[in-house]
Amino acid sequence: MSLGLGDPVSAIRGVGASGERTLRAAGVATLADLLWHLPHRYEDRSNPRAIRTLAALDGAVTVSGRLVQLVERRARNRRLRIVEAVLDDGTGPLPVVWFNQPYLTSALRPGSRVWLHGPVRPARSGWGVQLVGPEWEVEDEDAEPVHLGRIVPMYRKLGTLSGRRVRTLVARALGALGPVGDPLAERLPAGLELPGLGDALRCVHFPDPPAGETALASLFEQLASRRTAAHRRLAFEELLALAVVLERERARRRRQRVAACRITEEIRASARRVLPFSLTDAQRRALGEIVADLQRGYPMARLLQGDVGSGKTIVAALAALVVLASGRQVALLAPTELLAQQHYLTLRRLLQPTPFAPELLIGSLPAAQKRRVRQGLEEGSAHLVVGTHALIEDAVVFGRLGLAIVDEQHRFGVAQRQAMLEKGEAPHLLVMTATPIPRSLALSLYGDLDVSVIDEMPPGRRAVRTVLRDDSARPRLAEFLRKEVAAGGQAYWVVPLVEESEKISARAIATHVRAVRQALAGVRVEAVHGRTPPEEREAVMAAFSAGEIGVLCATTVIEVGVDVPNASVMVIENAERFGLAQLHQLRGRVGRGRRRSFCVLLTGADCSEEARRRLEVIAATSDGFRIAEEDFRQRGPGELTGLRQWGRPEFVVASLWVHRRELEAARALAAEAGRRGELDALAKLGSGPGGVGPVVPAG
User: Fold this and answer.
1) Mean pLDDT throughout 526-540?
2) Parallel/antiparallel/unpaired status of strands 135-138 and 113-122
3) DSSP code for 537
């Protein structure tokens, strides 16, 4: 009797009551669950080596022959049991040894033909080689070997079940699996040449080896990168699940109604008074897209993406002005108090010619001041507020919230963003990020948001020369900083940690400040980090902004939001410990004034060649989008994706970097289904990890 994807794992031959409990505890209840437990790598065990050609340096090899001897003995250590055998393939004998596997004397028989795969080691006798602890397959028992004689999938354990045991169960499940219906068959994009679900599940577990070494090498490259047609078919299904979730959110928001903002001549005049300079073409384009959204009858949901220093804040301020002029409130949510304070000061300066004075609401404010701000927001007398997570506390009530601006989008979860939106009745949403995301990924990943990109820097931004240096350069660096400060410049010196750690040999900031002060005697050196009291941190930052501090030692609290045009040098300690996007953010703190600016990436003694090559990407370009592409390629999208925030399990096979074509196709399919009102029908298709049924939860 054939099985279906929805059948329980207990239907697989060899899965008893204990095995079923183990599999269910690991989240595997059906055949679909088991078959979505994909190999994490593959080994070529298809072509056995001749025994006479083996050498101790060969590593793991596959051999095939007849067992001519098989005995068990106890070692001098009586707890160690050894099974010894001799394999002969006609070209010579090969000693084989297994440790603490006495059951092999009953599982294997002298005279049987077997396949073995394991590491070659020098023989104990000192002559020749032996095979140690190999995996085995009895050729006579199975016409189609599972563990040897083919490209063999390697699985991670499921509970107490070994990878070998998982492989056996997967092979039995596929052998018993009947015809697999593919609900997505008619929806698969023709240009991607994707196989049906049944073929994909079979090929992803047990791919057929092609003829020829070149073709075999190409297949293994595709298997390692998950670019085979089978992998891409399963990836498309996962990405379609994400696309449906995002499209549903977009459709839900567009069903909401909101009073459209009107653009009057008075608003245009206010905007001209606010602008301290002419906007770039990219800023004008982004602002035009935002204002067009604000004039529609449903709430805006837009991502404003721009490189460090591209001028997102002024665009957001002008958008806020449009909403404020319509009689509604604006809230700007920032991830840190330092960034919130910076935005507050910037908006207070920009909006000075208007009747809209911003308020600040952060956790470190005195209780009386927080009560005053909250009361003003509830009554509607406070028009614009800038704050941190304090803004989404239950005690904060808005009288008429019209626009929520979320800065540094990737630092907030969807739940936090939603909590901000629930402070008003269908407010507009503008999320900003200075962490560039490759354009194709931004358009697909943030499917519930329209995307505006500021890809042009304002005039006056100077290129920052970036160099890599090791510890031997410290004396020259100190002399350079002394001359730079004497000439009127200022410097940041970023360190990764606040206090000593036995696990990470990075310089603690307290120790580092003493060393910098000693090297730069006569130069005022101060420090800020995440544990600096707010009043002290504010005082230090104010003194640095005023030019009273020559060198500011800091942790990554200065990564975003700090704008000191006179700062001309950024030194980053142990630069190999930072991601490329974060290094680019830190570098963006300099080059904002007229002085020629520099970024020095200091590497530790244990910096690997791979890490150095990664840092050379930063040194070679100042284009944040190119850096983001490389960061995504090397490390994956990480937390930028927010997949956990969407309530989706982590992808089993899909990669937002590797499967970009599939991602684009999934987004297009979901968007088309949304336009036709067929999104719910699409959501019910597919096998999905977790069993037969909807790709995504309904509703």
Assistant:
1) 80
2) antiparallel
3) H
**Strand ranges in 312-440 using DSSP code E only, listed in sequence order:** 329-333, 358-361, 384-387, 401-407, 428-433
Contacts of residue 426, defined as CB under 8 A and 6 or more positions apart, other chains included, come to 256, 257, 258, 298, 299
Q: Which residue has the higher pLDDT, 87 or 252?
A: 87
Please give the angle made by the CA atoms of 345, 351 and 355, to the nearest 5 degrees: 125
Residues 6+ away with beta carbon under 8 Å from 504: 496, 497, 577
* pLDDT tens digits, one per residue of 670-679: 989 988 888 8
Sign of CA dihedral 233, 236, 240, 242: positive
How many other CB atoms are there within 10 angstroms of residue 370's CB atom? 20
Count of CB atoms within 10 A of residue 56's CB? 13
Measured between alpha carbons, how far is 433 from 452 in angstroms, rounded to an integer? 11
Give residue 686's pLDDT. 64
The domains found in the chain, sorted by start residue, are 9-41+172-224 (no CATH), 47-149 (2.40.50.140), 230-255+650-683 (no CATH), 265-454 (3.40.50.300), 464-621 (3.40.50.300)
CA dihedral 305, 307, 310, 311 (to 10 degrees): 40
Q: Are 350 and 317 in contact (CB under 8 A)?
A: yes
Torsion of CA 343, 349, 353, 355, to 10 degrees: 50
Per-residue pLDDT averaged across 306-323, rounded?
89
Q: What are phi and psi of 176, to 5 degrees?
A: -95, -10
Q: What is the pTM of this model?
A: 0.72
pLDDT of residue 227: 94
Contacts 24+ apart (CB under 8 A), 136-145: 136/104, 136/108, 138/107, 138/108, 138/112, 138/113, 138/114, 139/64, 139/112, 139/113, 139/114, 139/115, 140/112, 140/113, 145/115
Which carries the bigger pLDDT value, residue 580 or residue 50? 50
Does residue 420 register a pLDDT over 80? Answer: yes
Position 642 pLDDT exceeds 50: no
Cα–Cα distance measured from residue 218 to residue 640, given in angstroms and rounded to the nearest whole number: 31
How does strand 135-138 pair with strand 60-74?
unpaired
Q: Which segment of 120-124, 214-218, 248-252, 503-507 scores lowest on mean pLDDT? A: 503-507
Q: What is the DSSP letter of 657?
A: T
* 3-state SS assignment for residue 571: strand
Q: Which residues contact 475 (CB under 8 A, 6 or more apart)?
A: none
- DSSP-based three-state secondary structure for 464: strand
Token readout for 94 is 């090969």
Query: Which residues, in sequence order, are CB contacts of 301 under 8 Å at separation 6+?
Result: 250, 253, 428, 429, 448, 449, 450
pLDDT tens digits, residue range 451-494? 888 888 777 677 789 999 998 899 999 999 999 999 999 999 99
Identity of the amino acid at 105 = T
pLDDT of residue 342: 81
